[in-house]
Specification:
There is one protein chain. The protein is of the alpha+beta class and 244 residues long. It has a single domain, classed as Ribbon (Umud Fragment, subunit A), CATH 2.10.109.10. Helices cover 15% and strands 34% of the residues. It has 2 helices and 15 strands. A hairpin with a 2-residue loop joins strand 3 and strand 4. The longest helix is centred in the N-terminal third of the chain and has 33 residues. The N and C termini lie far apart (61 Å).
Length: 244
């Protein structure tokens, strides 16, 4: 009787370990091939994305590079099953000078484009991108920031913020986007380190995926694990907001 009990106990532990290993492998496959969750730690993409938003990023949208894999092993170069990104996509990518760091910005410049900011207006290949006033964005502290609607040449439209009409990022040189690279900008134009500054042109290989949906959102720098704070900090209106 004792031997049978011990045998059943060992078998039970073995099944438990097997289930855990299978679950971890499934999670790894989902994270590598399908979706990866990301959280937003800064306001560089306001008003589209807010601090405390949690996103699903699709890994298959642009194909797969070494940055699609956990720990980014140097197994191959370029992309496998690559699909071209589109102007206006909200993209998670690895910063070229710090490939261990994830950034999220909007793609505004394709390979071969000429990109420039003049007086707070985005120019693509010498043509001004339409920019219409769209009221004000009100921060959690009650500050009102001028808000504008931009519409890219392919029809993608979104809101941007421009608190200072004469900031350093509102007037730039003309950038010539090289082959195989893309130009990224944050929607919060005065508070975004992007391709206008130290990020530079982003190689296609550095793309991690396309931001598709906000699946959860908390304000006041609240952790989603703090369930007792949900009544005061949860943003229900942002949950299941589609981005892609």
């Amino acid at each position: 009787m004792v031997d049978r009990a011990v045998g059943k106990k060992k078998e039970g532990w073995g099944e438990t370990v097997k289930v855990i290993v299978q679950a971890l492998l499934l999670a790894l496959v989902i994270r590598t091939v399908l979706f990866q969750p990301f959280s937003i730690p800064s306001g560089s993409m306001m008003p589209t994305l807010l601090i405390g938003d949690y996103l699903f990023v699709s890994k298959w949208s642009y194909g797969f590079s070494k940055y699609s894999l956990p720990f980014s092993p140097d197994l191959f170069e370029g992309r496998v099953l690559a699909s071209d990104p589109h102007r206006g996509d909200v993209v998670v990518f690895r910063k070229p000078s710090e490939p261990q760091t994830d950034y999220i910005k909007r793609l505004v410049g394709l390979p071969g484009d000429r990109i420039q900011m003049r007086g707070g207006v985005l120019y693509i290949n010498g043509q001004a991108v339409p920019k219409e006033p769209a009221g004000f964005f009100v921060t959690g502290g009650g500050t009102q920031i001028p808000q504008f609607r931009e519409t890219l040449p392919n029809g993608v439209t979104y809101l941007t913020l421009d608190a200072d009409p004469d900031s350093i990022g509102d007037n730039t040189r003309e950038f010539d986007v090289p082959a195989g690279h893309y130009f990224m900008m944050g929607d919060n134009r005065d508070n975004s380190l992007d391709s206008r500054f130290d990020v530079g042109y982003v190689p296609f290989e550095n793309f991690v995926g396309k931001a598709q949906m906000i699946f959860f959102s908390m304000e006041n720098d609240t952790s989603p694990l703090e369930i007792w704070n949900w009544p005061s900090s949860l943003r229900p209106s942002r949950i299941f907001t589609w981005l892609g």
